[in-house]
Amino acid sequence: MLSNNSYQAFLEAKISLAPKSGITLDPGQLHPLLKPHQRDIVLWAAEGGRRAIFAQFGLGKTIIQLELLRQIINERGGYGLVVCPLGVKHEFVRDGAKLGLTVQYITTTDELDDPSVIYITNYERIRRGSIDASLFTAVSFDEASILRSLDTDTTQTILDTFQAVEFRFVCTATPSPNRFLELINYADYLSIMDRGQALTRFFERDSTTAGNLSIHPRRATEFWHWMSSWAIFLTRPSDLGYEDEGYDLPKLTIIPHRISFDRAVKVDKKTRQSSLLSDSSKSLPDAAKEKRESVDRRVEALNGILLDNLDDNILIWHTLEQERKAIQTLIGSGCKSVWGAQDIDQRESYLTGFAEGSVKYLSTKPTIAGSGVNLQYHCHKAVFVGIDYKFNDFIQAIHRIYRFGQTQACEVHIIYTDAEDEIYKTLLQKWANHDTLQNEMTTIIKEHGLNADAYAAQLKRELFAGRQVATGQLWESVNNDCVAEWQTKPDNSLDLIVTSIPFGNHYEYSENYNCFGHNETNEAFFEQMDFLIPELYRTLKPGRIAAIHVKDRIRYSYMNGTGFSSIDPFSDDTVRAFRKHGFYLMTRITVDTDVVRENASTYRLGWSEACKDMTKMGAGLPEYVLIFRKAPSTSDNAYADEPVTHQKREWNNDSKSWSTDYESGYSRGRWQLDAHAHWKTSGERLISEERLRRMNLKDVLKYWKSLEAGERYDYHRHAQLCEMLDQQGKLPSGFMATPPQANSPDIWDDITRMRTLNSEQVNQKNEKHICPLQLDIIERLIERYSNPGDLVADPFGGIGSTGYQAVKMKRRAFLTELNSAYWRDGLKHLRGAEVSQTALSLFDIPEFA
């Protein structure tokens, strides 16, 4: 038996913070030009080796990156590289000169010749394959958030290209804390945590929409402390305890310009409702149409703003090429435009000219010049000629002029139409959310600084404490870690174990590190099971059964790196784990699932995709009940030390009566149903189309079950029935109307999938338990493998399903559950089941021992 100390050590090892793989620098060797907050970040990032620097605009990310690379190259040798957006290289050249560094722009790594030089290139050169990443010791991505503006394949190529570099850093001023995929992509690139592991560990899935993620409330604290161990969110020097002198942002005024104009009458194709006012927030086509039709009016509003500010240099943001041309026509040669197909050197020249004050008006897109460039020294006014939902582009563009170092109050004019009211409101709401979440991150920095050990100490509080026990005449339920609780149980004291174990690290059921779902990998999950399974074996009586409900797991394309989904045979891993600790596998019962429901939550079995290429399609995943047996004390007859017996219920032809009543007897018919797990049919033939039209969906399912079970399965007949239902509008999109009926004794296809205690949870609007075990499965297992009065146990008690069914069937129950909310709900079910049984048969059932 493994010790409590070793189990405690295993749990504490789950606290995952970023590893340190860098070098320790001598603070005295850093350049004296660095301000205190910049010095601290350089020391922290160098020690980590792979870190993210998310510092607010104007806090000196350029100097931080240059000094960081200089120190690493001095220690380790080789070359250092900064990758940045277009228009930013002059910032690095200028700040490099302040540090006494030569900063050289390269278009290809053939130009490398001096390790004392810090080299710089842009993302476009990386995309073209001009840069050999293997030649660099340290690389920093400046304004790395620009990667989200590139297509997915390009972004992944850039990240993959540099993932083997020893020292890697990402920097940006505005990583939106609620853009979780962006943040965990950085973690993956920096080798902090695999993207798939991070998704599983911290986020809850929307079962109705694949890919729709939100951070799990129970994991929020851990997520932000984990983030803070490898990424610093800095809004001002005081976040690290320093004075903010010289870092005061000027006043920012947002000036909306709402344009109204007459439009043609619009008729909604679906509702047939007519309207004179468009709503461009409803669809992309509507938004695009509104933009095209309003260009002249929006540029006219721009003209009014320019006339009111004749003495000012003004930055003009647009999103359409049509807008750029209209702006250029309005202003003429006094306006320099920067666009995508333009010569790179010409773009650089215009951006540098505006930054230095020699260009009065600059017109460009946020996706081109919204990141990295510092334009605050000669400009404090900007105009958005149009808006969309892209908040990050919007906020980045604003901060080209609104940043530390800006000496004048800033004005941002936003031109939009009355049809874009919802878009404007959404942008402002996202801005408010952005500020709130950044404040949450900086609160952690203010409390703990850059001390990862403090984060670990804080997270140890997430280990479970506060054991609770509740008992009844027939049951005991404990709110505790199942390993800790099972270690206290006597040897050979349980008659039957029925449980649905967590499916590896696929779900987390509790906020505690004790949760079996809270493991980074399946291997770690089974390592924790190695503490539990021996206890299950020890406490189970010789010859008795442990029935374990499992399901194989889907490995999505982002998890296996293949571009298509595959299957992780979790049930096989479970078999190996139980056999390793002495259990014998007796059988594998298969429980069919609904393939249509499964596809709705995973998007991996779609009809449309199947028609495009059937080779990437699998099939719906069934569930399994694995029946394990602990060997009896003697092998003389293979019977359990305390056999599970059933009284035969036989039909007597002479007396025309049964030998015993239904409840206490076990007939041949019941045995066949248990063994074969399906009903025989009436033998009725294929139903006519006319009769099908008169039947409701419930009657169709009843008929299909009887027909499919009574005759040899015919694929074409089955498809024909589905097509007839589809033709009549009766083929559901959310579940299967006529699922295949099984003829195998190991497949239980008649399970009432909605009959679970979870259904009651939903009805009562309580927290929903994930992957509950159906009551009729539990009922069959208890009937087959236990005697009345036996003690049935479940280490993962959930909301009490096993105990509820055991008590109803005149058994006793012992449950453990880590999640306190589930445990409390389970008590209600257990008490309800006991009331119904004790009123009838209290004196026939042994009290809970």
TrEMBL record:
Origin: domain of life: Bacteria
Pfam family of the protein (one): N6_N4_Mtase
Domain Helicase ATP-binding, residue spans: 30-205
Coiled-coil parts of chain: none
Alphabetic keyword roster: Hydrolase, Methyltransferase, Transferase
Entry keyword annotation includes DNA-binding: no
SUPFAM superfamilies, sorted: P-loop containing nucleoside triphosphate hydrolases, S-adenosyl-L-methionine-dependent methyltransferases
Keyword Magnesium among UniProt keywords: no
InterPro entries xref list: DNA_methylase_N4/N6, Helicase_ATP-bd, P-loop_NTPase, RM_Methyltransferase, SAM-dependent_MTases_sf
PANTHER family, sorted: DNA ANNEALING HELICASE AND ENDONUCLEASE ZRANB3 FAMILY MEMBER, SWI_SNF-RELATED MATRIX-ASSOCIATED ACTIN-DEPENDENT REGULATOR OF CHROMATIN SUBFAMILY A-LIKE PROTEIN 1
Record's protein name: Helicase ATP-binding domain-containing protein
Species this protein is from: Fibrella forsythiae
